[in-house]
Amino acid sequence: MEEDLGVKFGRERSFSFDIFAIDEILFDDTDDITLYCRVPYFGVEYFATFGMTFSQLNTILRSIKTAASPIASAIADKLTNEASEAPITIKVEDVYNMTLEVNSVVLHTTLYELSDDEEEEDEMEEEEADDSEYVAYAFLVDEVEIIPPLS
């Protein structure tokens, strides 16, 4: 079973990823986009959540020459047909009949622990902490670096 890579790494650290597989793309009512991905780490596959801008997503998709057109069409269709119904999720497997493997860019990220808001944090501090409680993490993309093709 896939474990969340953020849980393994802890929080607020910088990491770079040069291989990942996109499972889903989520557009919500903010300007940010969420990618739900799988990432290999020392031979084990982990689940990872990446937060990024639309421009960064565009850079990633354009770096994959053969994949750019189908996913761009799917994104355009979803956003124009369902713009009032956020969140909008695109399951990459529905577009390609498989996940979209990316090895043409390096994602430079910072890992953060996700929390809803300060009120809930205050309530949690007052209650006894449960060690088995799941903590969500996300890698926020600071930069997308295109890997130049080998000559």
Structural notes for this entry:
Strand 4 (32-41) and strand 5 form a beta hairpin. Helix content is 28%, strand content 40%. Strands 1, 2, 3, 4, 5, 6, 7, 8 and 9 form a 9-stranded mixed beta sheet that branches. The chain has one domain (3-146). With 151 residues, the chain is of the alpha+beta class. The mean pLDDT is 81.
What is the fold's blueprint, element by element?
Blueprint: E1 3-4, H1 5-9, E2 14-17, E3 20-27, E4 32-41, E5 44-53, H2 54-63, H3 68-81, E6 88-91, H4 92-96, E7 100-102, E8 105-113, H5 118-126, E9 137-146
Parallel strand pairs: 1-5, 5-9
Antiparallel strand pairs: 2-8, 3-4, 3-6, 3-7, 4-5, 8-9
Features:
globular, 5 helices, alpha+beta, 151 residues, 9-stranded mixed beta sheet, 9 strands
In summary, what is this structure?
The protein has 151 residues and is an alpha+beta fold.
Any idea how many domains?
A: 1
| Major beta sheet summary | 9 strands, mixed
Q: What's the order of the H and E elements? A: EHEEEEHHEHEEHE
Terminal residue distance: 38 Å
The average pLDDT is: 81
Question: What is the molecular shape?
Answer: globular
- Helix amount, in percent? 25-40%
Number of strands: 9
Percentage beta strand: 35-45%
Taking all Cα atoms into account, the compactness measure Rg is 17 Å
What's the tally of helices?
5
Low-confidence stretches: none
Summing up helix and strand content along with how strands pair, one would put the structural category as alpha+beta
